[in-house]
Amino acid sequence: MTKTEETPICIAEELILLMLNEQSGYLEMVPGWDFSCVMAGTIIADLALMGRIDADLESLYVIDPTPTGDDLLDPTLKEIAEAQETSDTQFWVERNTSRCDEIISGTLERLVNRGILDYESGDFWRLSRGVSRSGSYPTSDNTIRHEAKARILDIILNDTVPDPRDAILVALMHSWNGFKLLLAPEELDEKLERIATIAQLDLIGRSVASAVNESSIRPKTRRSLLTKPIPQLRIVDILRQRDFLKGNIPKAMYGIFRKHGPVVRIPFKMAKAPLVALMGVEANRWINKYGRFYVRSKDYIQGLEHVFGASRSLPGMDGAEHYRMRKSLSAAYSRGALAPRLPELISHCRNSIGSWKQGDVFSVTETFQKHMSSQVSGLAIGVDCSEYVDELLEYEHRALITQVQGALPKFMMSTPRMKRARKRVGQLQEAILASHTPAQRKGKPPDIADAILDLHRNDPQFLPETDLTFPFVASMVASIYLGSALGFAVYCMVRHPDVYARIRREAEALFGNGREPRAEEFTLDAVDVCHRLCLESSRLYPVIPWQLRTAMNPCVINGFEIPPPTRLLICQTAPHYDGDHFKDPLKFDIDRYLPDRGEHLVPGAYAPYGLGTHMCLGNRWVELQMGVNILLIAYHLDLEVLPENYRLAINPFPTAAPNKKLKFRVARVANPV
After folding, report:
1. Could you tell me which CATH number the domain at 4-222 has?
2. Model's pTM, two decimal places?
């Protein structure tokens, strides 16, 4: 990539800034032919403004073929210069529509590198604080340029005379109806004539409009010409994947991907809608880039919400509401929220470890889920629910299986056992509310429950009291995932004695001689082996191997057209077993994450925390909590796998976990608690 600071801010960058909804964090664009023409037009316009090309009504031609040094512009300049025939501007706009994705991703990267946009996990962006405050951004020649929205609105609303660059921006926005993002409907009606007049001032703008309005290749036509029929799996095709029987969903889905391709129709239906599986790196990249426009999560989660008396939740929200909820809670779920409470985390962990004596044998999944639930209940919601945590987890487990996965009929939530467990859910909420009054919380570090209640108090319409139970319980659901993930990671550590020994050395450096390490000591250098163990364990055994979504708009993925309301099974972890991205993918190898290999850094190849806007909000919290637990277990205990000849099998429902046959034996207490 070209060094960003050496290139001027281009029209594509300013167009992206015009499309950014600062309230939602979304880029308000709908990918398609019209928008592709607009993005292609930005490249032609920049080349014209830089004096590399010129155009008249009949043709576009090169007047200076010298490369600009800008890798967004130079491929198009070279193609025009090498063309055998002279063509008009509309031809080159249409020709460059194929570069739309490249232009968008490159532009966003540049805006972040310039410090104009801040990127937030889940593919959200916002103006940086400096640009928001000043209303301007620096340019490569050290001059100050007013922010794009302010300039364009001034031209439209105050009849300011536009310069050529801004006239092009107005024309590009107008050609795909983009001013509906900037103006209220009544303002847009009033100023439409002026917008249309400005849009006609520049030949490039007129050519883009022609490409949008006159091209015979419209979006629907392009889809019907280019798309392929989706392969239909048979039940026997699924049964042939023996990894399903072992519970290894990512490996099984990769086997289907290798044989049948990235998009396949599953021989079952969900909610009377067809079920289509998406797999592979390219499909993952598509979801990350465009999922927000075409898929939603509400359909699969609403049954689970209903069980807890809620109508809306963070995993069930999409669009601006999801971004607002996510942004409100992000600080509470961050590593920065857990780091100051490291002594509490260590204490919770040691309370459990201290009860495991030499010779003890325990079931991995059950024990580690309880081990993690005690930490989560204390650190996230500030209550001790140890007396009834088993019933809470059982209720959550049954709700996931019946309401999300449909593996059991829904009446199984109404058994006498589940009715008793449901009362515990109410008991949990009452305990949280009673312990989170201002007086009770005075002087205590804020936790996740505080953040949820603050959001409710500040806007009870956005998060009403009826919707509080679900996020409270969701925090406890996390203990299921964390317990399973810890079980997998410790299993990998115990099965590889050299890794076990190296992690113990890291633990001794942090905890040896009675030390109580500070959070800032848990650097990547200090816990390098432990960190890479977690990465590799999450690659081989991700606890959430797939996600369910619903196609809400027609879309084309990897050349396959998917109509609404198709249910999508997004198998985001299938690439974890792809040998093209992970060398010897069946092999446990923590060195694949060393800087000189970095196999997990290929976009779309490594996705244990999900994709796109619904990527796990607390992944950095989890990283620290998992690391502390593994280090303390390695420091205090020598564990053995029982039975000795055990080969790992996975229980895939409701989330992936080691099956119940896996047990650990405490061979020795290396350092007493």
Report:
1. 1.10.3630.10
2. 0.80
